């Protein structure tokens, strides 16, 4: 037992899953990641832009052979700005501006590529669909069944620890919490990335840069009555936008929060954009090829995130709305903290390690999920406890202060477990 490397089986090979592989390999574990999709994502899957906080940046760099690569594949987001738009008069004005925002903007597929390419090549088993697991009577090993999609064979993998990184609809979580239902937020998000590398001097791009002069280093939030949008630039001449629209819960087909959209829906989107936003933003939305629609859910925070030798990380542990730019940050920090706990306490004390992981992470993610939920409701003009619906055109300045990213609970906190080891 002493000379044997402990082994973890990770379900889900997205950001949380491969971050976990890095963290556990660093802690001296063997790791196998099971991912149902058949190959590493290339180009642009459903992911778009995301914001990385300073701690996440540091952790990611510690996993890369060439830490500079992170810097080279992202753009700074040093300003967090909220502005109100009057769609009739086609004007907007600043509500809040924080120039000490220290995030970086990454394209999901670029970040994924960086992390994945820095892993040993056999870490992820592609096209492996997780089916079920079974914990041994003595609670020390876990047997995982999965289906190899190419052949149809079912195979069994045995490990010391099962890590569920299978996303917000986690089937591992469902095993322990069959009654936990995702909560529809009340709105959906249209998203898109406009690639302007082949026409940098197009009129629409020059106009956009005039209307949003800090593009390239600023995270812009535009607020109108009962709706808001997000705009920032990504490396390699790409503009990332998100637009949240209140609506009844749509019916989802299959196991994905991304909806298929019709030509009619896109046409309606373009029309509405012209009514609500300044023309410069409406035009960018119109020129974006293949915008997609995410239905926004979260879950009430869980009371526990491990059972025996099964542990949840990432969206599986804390489905959240995206308003705090937190989901990827949370996944990366979950993985790093879990790795530290396992390294510190060893396989002999697996239970203590999981208790510590939960003790460090659960209070933080609980507050962040609820804060993000509240922020989303404020920005969408929905009821929030303690005040009436927010209207950016009439809001008092104390009300506007609440919109800033820096009010996120534990905003600049670094868990002490990162200080105790060398
Ligand atoms: C509108 C919107 C904006 C966002 N913006 C940001 C942002 O600005 N910043 C940010 O940090 N994050 C953002 N996110 C969130 C981010 O994209 C991810 O949610 C986050 O990286 C957490 O990832 P995860 O690995 O936990 O889960 P997921 O990315 O959902 O991954 C789960 C993985 O598990 C696999 N899987 C599931 N079931 C099985 C099975 N049975 N067998 C094998 N594999 C399985 C799936 O194929 C998938 O690869 C945003 C999300 C939305 C919707
Ligand atoms: C990152 O970019 C800098 C400046 O362009 C370059 O000198 C350096 O080699 C790049 N580093 C990596 C690891 O690509
Ligand atoms: C626990 O049970 C498993 C499977 O039944 C067995 O392989 C393992 O040796 C047992 N471990 C201990 C510490 O008893
Ligand atoms: C919003 O709050 C008001 C007063 O606080 C209440 O009357 C109303 O029913 C609430 N609406 C919703 C949809 O919760
Ligand atoms: C700088 C920053 O905002 N980092 C935060 C990322 O999220 C975790 C919690 O999930 C915070 O503890 C960090 O402070």
From TrEMBL:
SUPFAM superfamilies: FAD-linked reductases, C-terminal domain, FAD/NAD(P)-binding domain
Protein name: FAD-binding domain-containing protein
Superkingdom of source: Eukaryota
Coiled coil: none
């Amino acid at each position: 037992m002493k000379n044997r490397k402990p082994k973890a089986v990770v379900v889900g090979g997205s950001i949380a899953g491969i971050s976990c592989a890095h963290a556990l390999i660093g802690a001296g574990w063997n790791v196998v990641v099971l991912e149902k999709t058949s190959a590493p994502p290339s180009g642009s899957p459903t992911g778009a832009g995301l914001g990385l906080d300073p701690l996440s940046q540091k952790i990611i760099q510690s996993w890369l052979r060439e830490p500079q690569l992170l810097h080279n594949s992202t753009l700074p987001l040093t300003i967090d700005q909220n502005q109100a738009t009057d769609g009739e008069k086609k004007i907007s004005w600043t509500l809040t501006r924080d120039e000490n925002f220290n995030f970086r903007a990454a394209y999901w597929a670029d970040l994924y590529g960086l992390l994945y390419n820095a892993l040993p090549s056999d870490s992820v088993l592609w096209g492996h669909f997780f089916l079920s697991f079974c914990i041994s009577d003595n609670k020390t090993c876990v047997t995982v069944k999965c289906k190899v999609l190419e052949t149809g064979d079912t195979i069994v993998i045995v490990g010391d620890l099962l890590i569920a990184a299978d996303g917000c609809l986690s089937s591992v979580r469902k095993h322990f919490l069959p009654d936990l239902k995702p909560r529809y937020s009340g709105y959906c998000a249209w998203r898109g990335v406009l690639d302007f590398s082949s026409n940098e001097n197009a009129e629409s791009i020059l106009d956009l840069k005039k209307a949003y002069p800090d593009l390239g280093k600023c995270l812009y939030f535009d607020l109108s009555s009962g709706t808001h949008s997000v705009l920032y630039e990504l490396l390699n001449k790409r503009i990332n936008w998100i637009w949240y629209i209140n609506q009844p819960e749509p019916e989802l087909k299959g196991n994905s929060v991304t909806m298929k959209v019709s030509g009619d829906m896109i046409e309606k989107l373009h029309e509405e954009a012209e009514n609500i936003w300044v023309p410069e933003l409406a035009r960018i939305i119109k020129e974006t090829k293949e915008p997609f629609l995410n239905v926004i859910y979260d879950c009430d925070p869980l009371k526990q995130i491990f059972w025996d030798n099964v542990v949840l990380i990432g969206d599986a542990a804390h489905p959240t709305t995206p308003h705090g730019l937190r989901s990827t940050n949370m996944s990366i920090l979950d993985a790093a903290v879990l790795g530290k706990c396992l390294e510190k306490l060893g396989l002999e004390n697996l239970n203590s390690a999981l208790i510590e992981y939960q003790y460090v992470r659960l209070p933080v993610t609980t507050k962040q999920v609820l804060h993000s939920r509240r922020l989303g409701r404020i920005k969408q003009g929905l009821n929030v406890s303690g005040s009436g619906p927010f209207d950016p055109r009439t809001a008092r300045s104390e009300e506007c202060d609440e919109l800033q990213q820096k009010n996120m609970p534990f905003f600049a906190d670094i868990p002490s477990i990162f200080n105790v080891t060398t």
